[in-house]
Amino acid sequence: MKTALISNRRRFLASIGAASLVMCTASRAQSLLDGASLGIVSGDGTDQTVAVQQAIDNAAASGQTLILPPGDISVGTLAFPARLALEGSGNATILRARGAAPVARIGTAQAITITGLGFAANIDAPTSQGPLLDISASDNISLVRCQFSGGGGGIATRDSALNISDCHFADLADAAIHSANSRGLLITNNRIARCGNAGIRIWRDEAGPDGSIVRGNRIAAIDWRDGGNGQNGNGINIYRADEVIIADNHIDGCAFSAIRLNSTRNSQVSGNLCLNAGEVAIFSEFAFSGSVIANNIIDNAATGISITNLDQGGRLAVCSGNIVRNITPNSAVNPDTIPIGIYAEADTAISGNSVSNVPGIAIMAGYGSFLDNVLIASNVVSEADYGIGVSVVEESGSVHIAGNLIAARKAKLVGLRWQEVVSTDLGADIAKFPNVTLNANS
């Protein structure tokens, strides 16, 4: 009797589960709009702008998800309205621009989700100017598993809040993602390759809170097509945008910097792998304040880490737990770059780093009078020409060097007057340089 009751109960629960599955499947089907059944044609190159726009407007108005058919769909510039849910067919759907204009625009909208959709440039004008997707004054916009290829840029956004995840950007003339005055971006787990000027740019017209998070992206082969002395050629570039977190990214082959902070406040750069940078791998420059650069790996760069521009108000940083190795003798893009592992100028703690194979100075504090209040402690230096170098001109501020392990080819602790080495043994000459204190270096 007990066995029969258990068996009946199992059949009853199974029937409930089957009924629930049928109901969920039916509900899902009712919430979908089939783009092909609405007259959208792919693959033949005909202008589908009117048909796609009507389907998009109907989906947003009805609260249904529009599923576009696979293949190339040729369109002019589409307008994505609020509350739109748009999907490609198994990542096989591509909206291809008919002209040089963006494939789509989002303006003053919210609650838009775009999944598994490709955005591509006109085949006859693959490097046309302008982004493939232009977004302005919008909130709660999500782009997931989308592809952007062959345009002037991937996504350009202004005054908006976006979630960009698991997307693929390639062969773009400018930047994969360019943000101006954002309301906070989440840029996670994307792949970016072969961009003309930048991977990810987060800029503001005026300095202020931004709050974006850039995490887990893979960025490679970033050129500096439009030239300049550092505004182009960077994997991740933050300008005047405060409170930004850059973490756990893999960045390889940038013409200038893997990560470049310019005039930022309270920025965190941690856990990134930075390979083959043409200039400074991780840069905190100009009027910055409050940069944390920690637990990154840098391999092959003209300079590893630079925390600079006291003359512009740049000060207050922590540089700790980084591995910096294989610094090149010079930079192919900036002849003024000096082979240094880690460099800092003001209110900075440089501690717990390991620096190896530098054909110059492994760790350097200050340049001429641009030096104030730097701690260099508990670092490990090996295979460098010079271990630790500090500015000892009369106007220099204080430096404390303690507990470092140094193996250097030419000299371990050196004093510098601008670029000239004036002491190859700071320990012996310490009485001459009152701005420097030493303790327990080996």
Write the layout of secondary structure elements.
Layout: H1 2-30, E1 32-34, H2 49-62, E2 65-67, E3 71-75, E4 78-79, E5 85-87, E6 93-97, E7 104-107, E8 110-115, E9 117-120, E10 131-136, E11 139-144, E12 147-149, E13 153-158, E14 162-165, E15 168-172, E16 175-180, E17 185-188, E18 191-195, E19 198-209, E20 213-215, E21 218-222, E22 234-242, E23 245-247, E24 250-254, E25 259-262, E26 265-270, E27 273-285, E28 289-294, E29 297-307, E30 315-320, E31 323-327, E32 340-344, E33 346-351, E34 354-365, E35 372-377, E36 380-391, E37 399-402, E38 405-417, E39 420-423, H3 426-429, E40 436-439
Parallel strand pairs: 1-2, 2-5, 3-6, 4-7, 5-8, 6-9, 7-10, 8-11, 9-12, 10-13, 11-14, 12-15, 13-16, 14-17, 15-18, 16-19, 17-20, 18-21, 19-22, 20-23, 21-24, 22-25, 23-26, 24-27, 25-27, 26-28, 27-29, 28-30, 29-31, 29-32, 30-33, 31-34, 32-34, 33-35, 34-36, 35-37, 36-38, 37-40
Antiparallel strand pairs: 38-39
